[in-house]
Amino acid sequence: MTARIIDGKIIAAELRARVADEVARVQREHQLTPGLAVVLVGSDPASEVYVRSKHKQTQAAGMASFEHKLPADVAESDLLALIAKLNRDPAVHGILVQLPLPKSLNTETIINAIDPAKDVDGLHPNNAGRLAGGSAALSPCTPLGCIILTKSVHASLEGMNAIVIGRSNLVGRPLVQLLLNENATVTIAHSRSRELAQLCARADLVYAAVGKPEMVRGAWIKPGATVIDVGINRLQEADGKTRLVGDVAFQEALNVAGAITPVPGGVGQMTVACLLVNTLRAACAIRGLPAPA
Ligand code: NDP
C-alpha cells in the first residue's frame, strides 16, 4: 500500500483563502486592516527568500505589510527602539523578527521586547507559557501548521500515540503542547533519547523536526501511521545542484505510512499561511473582536 500524500500546497492555499475572506469581513464590518511588520537583520539569502514570501502572501490576503531591513551590524539598542515603535504603532498587529539573528544580537532579549499581543511567531515567554498552561495564545506557526495537516487526515487526535522528534523552542516543544491540547498521548524524543526506532514504531503520529536528512527510516514507522516531516535539509547532488529533503526517508516511508507530507510541498507551505492566521487573530484580539473562525 502506498501512503496518501498530504498536499501542503493545497491545504495552505485553502487556509490563505479563508484568511483573505475573514480579512475582507473585518475590513467591511469593523474598518480593521490587520498589519504585519517583518524585521530582517542582515542579508542571509534564505531569510530574504522567506521575508519576500511573507510580504507577498500578507498583501495577497488583503493585509498591510511593513518591511524593516536593518544592517547585520545594527546596535541592539537600535533594534530594540524599532520594536518599541512597532509595539506602539496602531497599524501594526503582528511583529515578526526573522530568525536566526546575527550572533552579535541576543535573540532572547529581542523576542522578549515584542508586545506578547503582537507576537505572531508565538515565541515570547508569555505566549509559550500560556500554551504550556493549555490556554489560548498565539502559537508558533510551524507547529500550528503540523496540527492542521494532521487534522486533514484525522478529525480527532484524541488518544492517539504521537512522537515528536526534536525539542526546540521553535518547533518540537510547542508542537508537544498543541498535541496535548488535542488530547494525544505524546512522547518527546531528542538527541539523548535511546531506542528511537522502537519509540517511533509505537506511534500513530510521527513528527520529525530534527534537521538531519532522512534520519527517520521506513522500518521505524508503524504501518498506517501519519508522518509529518518538518525537516528542510539541502543536499548537494553530484551534478552540483541542490535538492531539498526532509528528516524522513520519504521513499521508504511511503510504502509503510498511511499518510505522509512531502518535502518540499508539505509543512513548509503551512508556516506562512499560519503566520497570516496569527496576524488576523492578533488584530481581532487587540481590537476586542471575537476570534475569527
Ligand atoms: P534545532 O536544531 O533547533 O533542533 C533540533 C532538535 O533535534 C533538537 O531538539 C535535537 O535534540 C534533536 N536532534 C538532533 N539530532 C538528533 C538525533 N540524532 N536523534 C533525535 N533527535 C535529535 O532545529 P529546529 O527545531 O529549528 O528545526 C528542525 C528542522 O525543521 C530543521 O530541518 C529545520 O530546517 C526545519 N524547520 C522547518 C520549518 C518549516 O517551515 N518547514 C520551520 C522551522 C524549522 P537536543 O535538544 O538534544 O539537541
From TrEMBL:
SUPFAM superfamilies: Aminoacid dehydrogenase-like, N-terminal domain, NAD(P)-binding Rossmann-fold domains
GO cellular component, one term: cytosol
UniProt-listed InterPro entries: Aminoacid_DH-like_N_sf, NAD(P)-bd_dom_sf, THF_DH/CycHdrlase, THF_DH/CycHdrlase_cat_dom, THF_DH/CycHdrlase_CS, THF_DH/CycHdrlase_NAD-bd_dom
Pathway in which the depicted protein is active: One-carbon metabolism; tetrahydrofolate interconversion
Keywords noted in UniProt: Amino-acid biosynthesis, Histidine biosynthesis, Hydrolase, Methionine biosynthesis, Multifunctional enzyme, NADP, One-carbon metabolism, Oxidoreductase, Purine biosynthesis
GO MF term set: methenyltetrahydrofolate cyclohydrolase activity; methylenetetrahydrofolate dehydrogenase (NADP+) activity
Role summary: Catalyzes the oxidation of 5,10-methylenetetrahydrofolate to 5,10-methenyltetrahydrofolate and then the hydrolysis of 5,10-methenyltetrahydrofolate to 10-formyltetrahydrofolate.
Assembly and interaction partners: Homodimer.
Similarity annotation: Belongs to the tetrahydrofolate dehydrogenase/cyclohydrolase family.
Full protein name: Bifunctional protein FolD
Organism: Bradyrhizobium canariense
